[in-house]
What we know:
By secondary structure, this protein is of the alpha/beta class. The protein is built from nine helices and ten strands.
Amino acid sequence: MELQQIRYFLALSQELHFWNTAERMFITQSALSRQIKALEDELGVQLFERSKRSVKLTEAGTFLKNQWLPLLDEINRIHLQARKIHEGAFGTVKIGYPGSIAYSFMPELITSISHTLPELKLELVEPTDISFEQLLLNYQMDLAFRRDPAENPSLQSSCLYSEPFALVVPLHHHLNEQNFIGLQDLEHEKFILSNLAQTTFYTASLRQILEDHHFKPNVYIETDFGGMILGLVSRGLGVSILPYSYAFSALPNVRFIPLPYTVNLYATWRRDDKSPVLRNILQQVQETAMKFLLDSN
């Protein structure tokens, strides 16, 4: 017994007309009759009472119609779901990201994904004490956005775009883009920064900026959470250096002064990951990154 035979039976049970059913199912009338006869022979059950003028379901045929019809709907739903999974339109993807892109790139990307792949479930992670690479290699994450390319050969990275670092000061601070000369202007300021002793690419970039200016900041608050840094700067508790992406936070009482230093954003994933969902997500990532590139030029 084949699934297609059941489909033919259910179509005939609704039409109760061989010619109409054959036309609906794109099959000849004689081929339809053979399929129904083969099904009856295999089941050992007469499904239809046939006469020259009419076709009627037998009692056994009515029973099978009532049993098979909801099952066929469920099978069709399952097949459709399988096709969506195959096409990468259904499933779950776990994405890690640094806080700096939470106000700009990530909202744009998630909007694009929700419009293009509305049945996809996203799990967003902002790791702090576990490295992005380890989470990817342990299959606890499928895609990571980070400020440096992956070092592990099992991972693949793609540079999406570059953005400037910026000096972040309270809105009514005496420094602005017009009168800012260099970090020496901030000799007596209190800084709110990430722990500069860390070995991440991001903190290495911060150290490079400070070293180029022969400047040692007076750091009195250390935190790796950019949102916290912004909140403290907005309250006049100090100044900081952050990626310019934070300017999209729309937090009041904060001014961004671009610096002549840039930081990259990379997408990183498992090199051998053939997931169709990941393939579709990466396409959305590239399209979103292209918008940022065009906007910055």
